[in-house]
Amino acid sequence: LAEVVRYCLKDVDLMKRACEQARLLEPHMDDDTLEADRRVNARGVAVDLPLVHCLLRHADRIVAEAGAAASAATDGAIGEAELRKTAKLRSWLAEQGVLVDDTKAETVRPLLAAGDLPAPLATVLRARLDVARVSTGKLRALVNRTQVDGRLRGMHGYYDAHTGRWT
């Protein structure tokens, strides 16, 4: 054990001399920035959780209403889950005589604008647009990462990107 301790002390001394020679222990131009970054991450950012929960309820309502409308229009063939599953939705559309490469808004909007779709198809495509525009992943992440004091911490990073920018 004494031999290991002597080795460690030598190692620390060698590293200290190397840092002094390379001037690594002197103040660095980024020190103030790094300290500010540390303070920002320690303080955190206030999150309006009641607003986030309200937005989530609103999003869930939009998706539920779109799913119910699609289900009613298709006698249950297309519901909330199918509106999110592109392959299943495309398959059902093909069965109805509508062939599409995808169900992106850029594809669906012109079909609706043409105005010649049967009512059930138009209802399903409008519901698809409603469901596709609702994205709750970031809101749910806010809820999950916000601490009990209502603040989100550790989300700020100085020089995390390879270009040196903030992340």
Going by helix content, strand content and strand pairing, the class is mainly alpha
Number of helices: 8
Computed Rg: 28 Å
Q: What is the overall silhouette? A: elongated
Q: Strand order of the main beta sheet, please?
A: 1-2
Taking the alpha carbons of the first and last residues, their distance comes to: 44 Å
The tally of beta strands, per DSSP, is: 2
Mean pLDDT: 90
Residue share in helices? 55-70%
The main β sheet shows up as: 2 strands, antiparallel
Give the amount of beta strand, in percent: under 5%
What kind of oligomer do you see?
Answer: single chain
Weakly predicted, low-confidence segments? none
H and E order: HHEHHHHHHE
Chart the SSEs and their pairings.
Elements: H1 2-21, H2 31-43, E1 45-46, H3 49-73, H4 80-84, H5 86-95, H6 105-114, H7 119-133, H8 137-145, E2 151-152
Helix pairs in contact: 3-7, 3-8, 6-7
Would you kindly provide a written description of the structure presented here, covering whatever features stand out?
The longest helix has 25 residues, at about 50-75. The protein is elongated, with a radius of gyration of 28 Å. The chain has about 170 residues and is mainly alpha-helical. It starts with a helix and ends in a 15-residue tail after the last strand. It contains 8 helices and 2 strands.
Describe the structure using short key phrases.
167 residues, mainly alpha, elongated
